[in-house]
Every structure is written in structure tokens, then in C-alpha cells.
Amino acid sequence: MPPKEPENISPFKKDDNLKERLNFTQNGGKLIIDVEYIDERGNIPICLKILKNVGNLRLVGETGVGKTKMVHKLAEMTKMPLFEVVLTRDTSRWDLISTDILREGETRIREGIILLWLKAPKGILYLDGFNYAEPNIISLVESLADFRGSIWISELQQTFTRSAEHYLIISYNPSEKSGYSGTFLENIATIRRFEGLVIDYLSIPEETKLIKSKCNNDYEWARKWVEIADKSRNLYKDGKLRTPLTTGNLINYAKLHSEGVADEDLLSIAQSLFNEVERQTFQRLYEGIEPLEFKTKKTKEEK
Description:
Helix 8 packs across helix 9 (about 220-235) and helix 8 packs parallel to helix 10 (about 245-260). The longest helix is centred in the last third of the chain and has 19 residues, at about 220-235. The protein is about 40% helix and about 15% strand. It is elongated, with a radius of gyration of 22 Å. It contains 13 helices and nine strands. The relative contact order is 0.12. The chain is an alpha/beta fold and about 300 residues long. The chain has two domains: about 20-200, P-loop containing nucleotide triphosphate hydrolases (Rossmann fold, 3-Layer(aba) Sandwich), CATH 3.40.50; about 205-300, no CATH class. A five-stranded parallel β-sheet has the order 2-5-8-1-9, with helices on both faces.
């Protein structure tokens, strides 16, 4: 379990009003509780200060480093409702704001996640996968992120403005090149509106401790699979694997290991992430790690 945060780490007021929690949940946002997040590098306090003083936070990191979990932890600590969406190439401006729908023979407005966020008294809007945002979405976010802090919705003939307690977080994966051309990497105007952090995977010792706690304290097994995951991440960054093994994958494998699933079966499960050529690469990666090499690296803290 990660260490508990000091009582004064968050600069925000606490509000445990149950009625307010249920109200936000019913109106598009959700109030987050009990998030297990290991802040090994002390990013949470910095993110809290960016949110309070700037309002716009940018997270950069590979798939599986914990960007989304960090956002959930921030939502929990600020006691704010979270409005989140994963952007794809098919996500349109109107999906995020509002669209006309036909219901019971009448045309009505379906409110999008951004409109729901702006109509709430406060909240965190999280746009995941921002490198896939289309230009019209980027321009929308820019108007929300700069001094204007507002959008005009023609269907409603109304301007909506964010308050000082409406926080905006975007994230993207630098290893996913698709969707970058003409968007985020070239759009300095968008980047400068956000203050950001680069988020990385847990270190091998820290991740080993976590995985060991999920597999009946089997250190050798945990260390072996963390080493495999670490090498898969390097291959992913080099474009030789379509995905790395993430901490989430390792937690799943640790639980299966605790249930008696054999390593050869876990290998097959892990290989299902890849195509045929990549499976052979991962097989060689797996076979190249000898359990004996980990014994000399065990520390007193890990015993």
C-alpha cells in the first residue's frame, strides 16, 4: 500500500456532503474515493499546486504509467467531481459540447461532457488521449484554457464560462505517433496554455514491492516479471512491440500466480497482447531472464 498523504498536502477544502456527491454522480461527474496510487516521484503535490494556481494541467507519459490513476487520485484529494472522456479520431466538437437528438418525436439537446462540466459548480475535466484531438477540438480547448475561459454554444444561444474551481487536465502518449501531425506536437499555442509533467513507470524496486504484495510475497516471481515488463517497455518505445506490459498487467498476473496459474500459462496470456511476430520477440524476452540473476539484487527492505 502507498504511504498515506500528510493531512495538509492538499490546499483544497474537504467536503464529504453525501447529497452533493450523489448529485454530481447523477449529473455526469463522479466523485472518486479509495484510489491506490503510488506517488514515487512526488508528482501529486506539484499537480495540486498547478491546478490551484494555473487551472490547466498536462500529463505526458507512455501507456500504463498511471496518468489516469493519477487524475483519479487528484479528484479524490480535491473532493471534486471528475468528468472524463477518452478522445479518439472520431470524437467531434459536438460530441463534447452538445448534439441534437430525436426523442419521442421532439428534437432535444444531449449535453456533452464539457457542457456538463461547465454547468457543475466545480469539477475536473479530464481529456485523455489528447494527441488524437481534431483541430476543432483543439480550438475549443484553447478558448477554455486561456484568459477567455468560455465557449459559445449556438444551439443554446448561450456562453458558458469556467470558474476558478473548474480544472482542466489533458494527457497524451508520446509513443503513439498517430494523430500527432497537424495537432498537438505542432500546436505550441495549446501547449503553452498548460503546465505539465512527464510521468514515468515505477522504478524496478518500487514496482517489485507492489507486485510482491499481490502474489503472496513471492519476491523471485515478482522481480522476474517486473524485469520482463521493464524490457518490454523499452521495446515498446523503440517501436518493436505494439504495447508494453503495464503495472496493471503485472497485478493481474500476480493474482493469477497466487491462484496457482503456471508461468507457462501466464506467458501465453501475456503473448496474447501481441501479433505473431511480436509473440516470438516476447518469448525470447521471457526466456532471456534467469531467476538466479535476481538473488544478488535483493535488499534487506525487500526480504
